[in-house]
Amino acid sequence: MDHSVFLLSRYRDERAAGAEWEAALAAARKATSRAIAYSALAVISPSGDHAIGRNACY
């Protein structure tokens, strides 16, 4: 997923809802940070199991 598109989308949603640009940017960054963290966990978790010899897929 392209996180910059997600960030811009959230920013525009916040602005459309009436938030000032500073508040809109803060809310968009917070939401995007969570999305990036969950994406990283989804990739790292199975990779970590594989690295220590466990097969996370089975």
Describe this structure in words.
It is a single chain. It is elongated and about 50 Å long. The protein has one domain (about 5-50). The chain is mainly α. It is built from two helices and no strands. The mean pLDDT is about 80.
Helix content: over 70%
The largest pleated sheet is described as: none
Total domain units: 1
Separate helix tally: 2
Report mean pLDDT, rounded to a whole number.
82
Run of helices and strands: HH
Short précis:
With 58 residues, this protein is mainly alpha-helical.
Task: Write out key terms for the chains shown.
single chain, 58 residues, mainly alpha, 2 helices, 0% strand, elongated
SSE blueprint:
Layout: H1 3-16, H2 21-51
Helix pairs in contact: 1-2
